[in-house]
Amino acid sequence: MSKRVEEWTIEVIEELGALITNGHYIYNSGKHGEVYVAKDLVMPSTIQLNDMCAELAGHYMVFDAAKRAESEIAWVDTVIGPAPNGAVLASRVAEVIHATTGRPAFAVYAEKGKKLDGDGKPEFEVRPTFERFLDETQTVVVVEDVINSGRTVKKIVELVQSYGAKVCSIAALWNRGGVTAEDLGVPDLFSLVNVR
Fold it and tell me: Angle at the Cα of 158 (from 143 to 54), degrees rounded to 5?
């Protein structure tokens, strides 16, 4: 990510009142920090959000073109994110990919289900109507608003893989946890902001 895009993204998030820097916060991961990104304040701001999603999609299309040249992956077929915010991001990123390439990219979302994981946290699931967008013929980008520990996005990756689809990239607005593609077992992780 270029410094210019990172600085622009932080500036936009600040202007939206979504960057809170004057407190002590305990994140869902259990980690503590002095900065909080109120991502729910970003989602309703359609113009700024569309610009951010265009940056995310732009990176993916450059990455995708390079990988296609190496015959490693096909075009992106599906974009998925965890509801609620990831659903909005998936829709916007898929829309930009379609508008730019002329090929449809589908947008689906995962939501917390009733089944619990080993830590007593809800597992993610997709609705049966979305399963056809995650079969073994699909190449998938996972989107997330803010990555702290990477636990949520890792669960989404595993969910997608359980249907046989290939996750080629993860795209996030903000990577606060220093999480890497290797940590998540994917070939590419891209975020507009990489600041802890």
Answer: 10
CB atoms within 10 A of CB 179: 22
- DSSP of 9-34, one letter per residue? HHHHHHHTT-EE-SS-EE-TTS-EES
Task: Please state, in angstroms and rounded to a whole number, the distance separating the CA atoms of residues 12 and 39.
Answer: 12
| pLDDT tens column, 22-65 | 778 777 667 777 778 888 999 999 999 999 999 998 876 665 55
Burial degree of 99 (CB within 10 A; 0-12, 13-18, 19+): exposed
For 50-193, CATH gives 3.40.50.2020
User: Would strands 122-125 and 106-116 be described as parallel, antiparallel, or unpaired?
Assistant: antiparallel
Domain ranges for the chain, please list them.
50-193
Task: List the structure tokens of 153.
Answer: 């996005």
Record the pTM: 0.89
The most distant pair of C-alpha atoms in the chain lies apart, rounded to whole Å, by 48
H or E element at residue 153: helix 151-162
C-beta atoms surrounding 63 within 10 Å: 19
How far is the C-alpha of 194 from the C-alpha of 19, rounded, in Å? 14
